[in-house]
């Protein structure tokens, strides 16, 4: 059986040899879902774990899962999760034999680890030489060239200032990509199409790089227009053995950050897959790499591929590789760190089935495909009852999504014997995922995986802006889907009315003998108002919409966050997000939340006499579209500004965003 699909709770079930001794105690210098992921494998291997946390993460899931937990500082990552001195002290105090951490951090920590190695502490990951070489995009590109790996044309040195950036960009030829040398995760990256965008990109990229990585060095290279982003998972040991574990397709992105990943890719043929895998292994061997790592490539429409970067850590999207190969990458990393040789040969690595991963974020997808949202998860239920579903998360009901950390809620993974099956499972899982208290991107994820272009495999890193040139607007209902939604909303209204007449199974007013069986309603959806007639037939409702009758059946458990509704034989999973006494209700249907108002015919006729609340005039206000920190203000009171002029810069989740004036006026 698939190791990642063994139980309904998706516990890992790789075969562990109790005679193969590794470590007694391991410190995890990370947070969130990846820390929880490491702890799960450690528990299976009999390794005790130590978690570190900031003061705001004291009740985090990874803290509760670990055997020990130590606070290392306040909320900002630079003062807690990247607080080198505090972490080294925890290692000494807890006597941890090994440490696992996010290695995309500054080199001072690596030198500290080198010192700790002499005291018998092992780092779960590659050695410092490989991390420094591959963590520096300039050096890694030169090493890739020497290893005969295909590379993107560009400037191989450090860009000193904005003027030099413009000069280099002109020499390379627009468009160009400006990126942080020590970067990753889409931070410190900007595409520039002209001199002005190059100057602006240099400023923001250097600031983001300094904030995220403590290193503001930048490089510039040719921007490959309309590519695919495909990466190769590699695994190497300390004995000179290295494997490539097939590819992951990561082309669905926004702001250079991945949103949907899958394995394998629909685009690669066996020859291209082998060529990319062999070059990835050649690079790993060139830097004497020993652990799990990822070599990322850009692939053009002719299947020419170019080295992008190597990530010397366990990638967010690693579960899809685990699902199609059956390997537990965390276990393999721990074995390699202890000095064991790899247990597999290249010929042993399979592609069994298909896996898809959606990154579920606390983001508003209607704003630039996802601007961060903060808040408390007032209700949270993962779709683990759906077959072949795995959820890697580091939160639970009651958790806070704050401005200090990445807004990821979870990684939702589905597996199938083929791509169509995996995508169908993902559609079902997204419909059954309950998230309340923060905005989330479920609607965008669902629309992506059912879009004809995605289903056909016709994708690139420009997928989102090409498919949604005016921004994401949610699911566009067909006439049939609109009637199904109206019928569902009307049935819910009637079910609510019938429930309110009874208490503990008996009528609230025993002498009342009302046996009402039909209702005339008016449902407001979008710009339309629709007359709807509902009649009760046992546990079902017959609903007439647009002159057509629909049969709506459900258990009508109104206390459940999920409702399985069958409409003329078509099953839909819906969620009633909210409702109020004025008939207004929000229903999540086909992934998108729709606002409706359901009224009786009489109430609808009288509603025209109700005064409407005037919309707030925001034309003279600059309001941040996301929570964050003001890091720069470019104007002062009394200044005249023109439309499009920068007013301030907001940093949210380590990404810097320029806020501009919507019109000409005085501050």
Automatic annotation (TrEMBL):
Catalytic activity: propanoyl-CoA + hydrogencarbonate + ATP = (S)-methylmalonyl-CoA + ADP + phosphate + H(+); butanoyl-CoA + hydrogencarbonate + ATP = (2S)-ethylmalonyl-CoA + ADP + phosphate + H(+)
Highest rank taxon of the organism: Eukaryota
Annotated Gene Ontology cellular component terms: mitochondrial matrix
Domain Biotin carboxylation, chain residue ranges per copy: 22-469
SUPFAM superfamilies xrefs: Glutathione synthetase ATP-binding domain-like, PreATP-grasp domain, Rudiment single hybrid motif, Single hybrid motif
UniProt domain ATP-grasp: residue ranges: 141-338
Segments passing through the bilayer: none
Biological processes annotated in GO: lipid catabolic process
Signal peptide positions on this chain: none
Limits of the Lipoyl-binding domain: 613-667
EC number: 6.4.1.3
Pathway: Metabolic intermediate metabolism; propanoyl-CoA degradation; succinyl-CoA from propanoyl-CoA: step 1/3
Compartments in which it is found: Mitochondrion matrix
Protein name: Propionyl-CoA carboxylase alpha chain, mitochondrial
Naturally occurring in which organism (per UniProt): Toxostoma redivivum
Taxonomy of the source species: Eukaryota, Metazoa, Chordata, Craniata, Vertebrata
């Amino acid at each position: 059986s698939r190791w990642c699909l063994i139980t309904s709770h998706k516990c890992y079930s790789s075969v562990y040899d109790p005679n193969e001794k590794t470590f007694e105690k391991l410190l995890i210098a990370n947070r969130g879902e990846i820390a929880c992921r490491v702890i799960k494998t450690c528990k299976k291997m009999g390794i005790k774990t130590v978690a570190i946390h900031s003061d705001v993460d004291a009740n985090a899931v990874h803290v509760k899962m670990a055997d020990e937990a130590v606070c290392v500082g306040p909320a900002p990552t630079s003062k807690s999760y990247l607080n080198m001195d505090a972490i080294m002290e925890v290692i000494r105090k807890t006597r941890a034999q090994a440490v696992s951490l996010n290695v995309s951090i500054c080199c001072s920590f690596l030198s500290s680890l080198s010192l700790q190695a002499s005291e018998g502490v092992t780092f779960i990951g590659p050695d410092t030489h490989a991390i420094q070489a591959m963590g520096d995009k300039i050096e890694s590109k030169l090493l890739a060239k020497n290893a005969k790996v295909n590379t993107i044309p560009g400037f191989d040195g450090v860009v000193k200032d904005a003027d030099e950036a413009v000069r280099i960009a002109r020499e390379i030829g627009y468009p160009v990509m400006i990126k942080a040398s020590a970067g990753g995760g889409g931070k410190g990256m900007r595409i520039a199409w002209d001199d002005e965008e190059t100057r602006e990109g240099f400023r923001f990229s250097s600031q983001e790089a300094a904030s995220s990585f403590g290193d503001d060095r930048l490089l510039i290279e040719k921007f490959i227009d309309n590519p695919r982003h495909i990466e190769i998972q590699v695994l190497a040991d300390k004995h000179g053995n290295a494997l490539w574990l097939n590819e992951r397709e990561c082309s669905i992105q926004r702001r250079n950050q991945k949103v949907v990943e899958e394995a394998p890719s629909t685009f690669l043929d066996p020859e291209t897959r082998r060529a990319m895998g062999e070059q990835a292994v050649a690079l790993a061997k060139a830097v004497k790499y020993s652990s799990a790592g990822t070599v990322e490539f850009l692939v053009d429409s002719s299947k020419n591929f170019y080295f992008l970067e190597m990530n010397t850590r366990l990638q967010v999207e690693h579960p899809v590789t685990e699902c199609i190969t059956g390997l537990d990458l965390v276990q393999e990393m721990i074995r390699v760190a202890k000095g064991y040789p790899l247990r597999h040969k290249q010929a042993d690595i399979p592609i069994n089935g298909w896996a898809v991963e959606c990154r579920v974020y606390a983001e508003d997808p209607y704003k630039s495909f996802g601007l961060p949202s903060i808040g408390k998860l007032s209700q949270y239920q993962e779709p683990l009852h759906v077959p072949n579903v795995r959820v890697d998360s580091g939160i639970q009901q009651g958790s806070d999504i704050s401005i200090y950390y990445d807004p990821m809620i979870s990684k939702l993974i589905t597996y199938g014997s083929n791509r169509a099956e995996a995508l169908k499972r993902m559609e079902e899982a997204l419909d059954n995922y309950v998230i309340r208290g923060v905005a989330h991107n479920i609607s965008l994820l669902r629309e992506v995986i059912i879009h004809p272009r995605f289903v056909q495999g016709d994708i690139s890193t420009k997928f989102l802006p090409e498919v949604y040139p005016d921004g994401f607007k949610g699911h566009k209902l067909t006439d049939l889907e609109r009637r199904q939604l109206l019928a569902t909303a009307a049935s819910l209204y009637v079910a609510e009315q019938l429930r309110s007449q009874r208490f503990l199974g008996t009528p609230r007013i025993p002498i009342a003998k009302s046996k009402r069986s039909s209702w005339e309603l008016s449902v407001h959806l979008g710009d339309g108002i629709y007359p709807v007639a509902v009649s009760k037939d046992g546990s079902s409702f017959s609903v007439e919409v647009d002159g057509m009758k629909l049969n709506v059946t459900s258990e009508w458990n109104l206390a459940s966050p999920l409702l399985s509704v069958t409409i003329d034989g078509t099953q839909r999973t819906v969620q009633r997000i909210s409702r109020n006494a004025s008939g207004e209700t929000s229903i999540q249907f086909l992934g998108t939340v729709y606002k409706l108002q359901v009224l009786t015919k009489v109430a609808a006729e009288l509603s025209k006499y109700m005064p409407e609340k005037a919309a707030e005039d925001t034309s003279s206000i600059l309001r941040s579209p996301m929570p964050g920190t003001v890091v720069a203000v470019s104007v002062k009171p009394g200044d005249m500004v023109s439309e499009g002029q920068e007013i301030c810069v907001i940093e949210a989740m380590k990404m810097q965003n320029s806020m501009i004036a919507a019109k000409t006026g005085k501050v």
